[in-house]
Amino acid sequence: MNGVVIIDKPPGLTSHDVVNRVRRILGQRSVGHLGTLDPSATGVLPIVVGNLTRLAQFYAHSEKTYEGVIRFGFATDTYDADGEPTTPVQEVHLNYDEIRALAAQFQGVIEQMPPPFSAKKIAGVPAYKLARKKQPVELKPIQVEIKEFEILDTAAGQEKGQEKDQPSPQAGVHRNDQATFRARVASGTYIRSIAHEMGRKLGCGAHLSTLRRTAVAEFAIADAHSLPALETAMQQGIVESLFVHPRRLVPQLPCVTATEEASALIRCGRAVNLPEMSRAPQVKVFYGQAELIAIATRIAGTLFHPQIVFPT
After folding, report:
1. Cβ neighbour number for residue 61 with a 10 Å cutoff
2. Has residue 199 got a pLDDT over 90?
3. 84-92: which pairs have CB atoms within 8 A and are 24 or more residues apart?
4. Residue 259 belongs to what domain range?
5. How many domains does the chain have?
6. How far apart are CA 208 and CA 75, in angstroms?
7. Does 69 share its domain with 129?
8. Helix (H) or strand (E) run with residue 206 in it
9. 46 — pLDDT class (breaks 50, 70, 90)
10. How many angstroms separate the CA atoms of 186 and 78, rounded?
């Protein structure tokens, strides 16, 4: 079984947890994902299955889109709602125009400090392992690109009771300390760090309350399926109907359909002529309409050599 299926990751699972569940559902060992999501985050998690795990290299720097909520009033050690408060709780009444102006400072190519609870490595050790042991975490700023960061609303919320990210609440008390946002960022950007830094600049502290990823590269939330839906489809024998059509994958590369003779040569790693692709530097090669057999690179003229072959 080979393909790409988009999972709508539920909260509380790591991305690796989702991979393990997909392995059990499909009875397939070769399964991976294209871009980690924090356990508390939800949304688009592309899962690659079988020989298409080899496509991961084309998605290593994929653009991502998010929607979420930032809560102002206190910071946390994880920069999100799962952490412990690190600043005193303050009453905050947000001004929409002020928050929009602040958000504008975070657009473009900027220097960003990764969260202490992150996978960034310090002397070969993931930062989160040191942070969990209360050991010093000395990270360096990284350059990231925030292509869009828009504040959608700062409407008042209402307390529902004691929750971990709401210390010392009073039931029924209205507050105006949350801002909903939409962001489109380059790979490697930490939305948690944006929330934390916004709180620092306002002097009141802040953390990421909720986060939902709505797109990774060409994959959107409309393409996503729940884990129970995937399991049901597997039981009904229609699981491959949930897979993304192979011709939609790696859309920056044009598609070419090889003849039976050319396909046989490509499967053996041999170069072939693809006359209709005289200008493209790299192409996706199909046998028939839906079987992706190779990614091929142009050598000269119309001669292409298979860079990656996907075995049947």
Report:
1. 10
2. yes
3. 85/167, 86/205, 87/205, 88/205, 89/167, 89/168, 90/204, 90/205, 91/175, 91/177, 92/175, 92/176, 92/177, 92/202, 92/204
4. 253-309
5. 3
6. 9
7. yes
8. strand 206-216
9. very high
10. 21
Q: How many CA atoms lie within 13 A of 112 on its CB side?
A: 27
Catalytic (active-site) positions? 38
Q: Round to whole Å and give the CA distance between 100 and 79.
A: 20
The DSSP bridge pattern shows strands 42-49 and 206-216 to be parallel
Residue 199: give its domain's CATH number: 3.30.2350.10
Q: Tell me the Cα Rg of the chain.
A: 23
Q: Which residue has the higher pLDDT, 173 or 305?
A: 305
**Which residues are CB-contacts of 30 (< 8 A; sequence separation ≥ 6)?**
49, 50, 51, 53
Amino acid, res. 184: R
* Predicted TM-score of the model (pTM): 0.87
Q: Is the dihedral of CA 37, 146, 142, 32 positive or negative?
A: positive
CB-CB neighbours of 288 under 10 Å: 10
Q: Are strands 255-257 and 282-287 parallel, antiparallel or unpaired?
A: parallel
Category of 34 on φ-ψ map: left (φ > 0), alpha (ψ -120 to 50) or beta: beta
Query: Residue 144, Cα to own-chain centre: how many angstroms?
Result: 15
